[in-house]
Design goal:
TIM Barrel, nine-stranded mixed beta sheet, 32% helix
């Protein structure tokens, strides 16, 4: 099995409920979306990065883990890692044998591909892609299907910008509530990039109150790695 890998590195998770935990990151090339706030545009295209066999990827992972023995989690990110789910299935099988935890960071639109690896994944970070940041495209049905397939070990992350509307935010909250109101719901104020401006503090607080009326585990967690100045 051959895959397109943009980079592999050890760093601290900077997003979501596991922010602060050291992980080994495997960043896959290619993405099926084109979000306004994307901060990894360099790996969006499927032809970026290196072509590696799963054996070569495993060897590099082994070397990095040997050099960083305190790391116990491998994060598959991108791009959109589930575009290469068959390769990830082979990698997760090996990693689980080695008692390494698996973390998947996904845009939550490829439920069928997630099925290839679901049984081996310890934590799923699923973005909710709002129409205001994805060129007006809606993924409500895809997101709901994905949540239903992985609700036991998933948290959702919703990036908020100056363009985020109350209506689309409420729709996201209601969708999560219908699946399970105990799913952790992370509100992530966007790190301003290019023409994407940050959300106003008063709007962030307003959205938080909306979410807390329906969901049990609401938090605000910005991109901490950006604040720490690390990859």
């Amino acid at each position: 099995m051959i895959g397109r890998i943009f980079e592999m590195f050890v760093s601290v998770q900077g997003e979501g409920i596991l922010a602060g935990e050291q992980m080994l990151f495997v960043r896959f090339s290619g993405c099926n979306l084109n979000c306004d706030y994307c901060d990894t545009e360099e790996c969006r295209h499927a032809i970026s990065g290196r072509l590696l066999t799963h054996e070569e990827i495993i060897r590099e992972i082994e070397d990095m883990l040997a050099q960083n023995p305190s790391v116990g989690t491998v994060s598959f990110t991108g791009g959109e890692p589930l575009l290469q789910s068959e390769l990830i299935a082979e990698l997760t099988q090996y990693l689980k044998e080695k008692k390494i935890k698996i973390y998947v960071d996904t845009n939550g639109t490829l439920c069928d591909k997630f099925a290839n690896i679901a049984s081996n994944v310890d934590c799923v970070a699923m973005d909710i892609k709002l129409p205001s940041a994805s060129g007006g495209m809606e993924f409500w049905e895809e997101h709901k299907k994905f949540l239903l397939s992985a609700c036991e070990n998933i948290f959702v992350k919703i990036v908020l910008t100056s363009k985020t509307t109350v209506d689309e935010f409420k729709k996201a909250v209601e969708m999560v509530e219908r699946v399970n109101n105990l799913i952790p719901f992370v509100m992530q104020p966007v790190t301003p990039i290019k023409k994407v401006d940050g959300i106003l503090p008063e709007n962030l607080e307003r959205f938080k109150k909306i979410a807390e009326k329906r969901l049990k585990k609401v938090s605000i967690i910005p991109q901490m790695h950006k604040k720490w100045g690390i990859k």
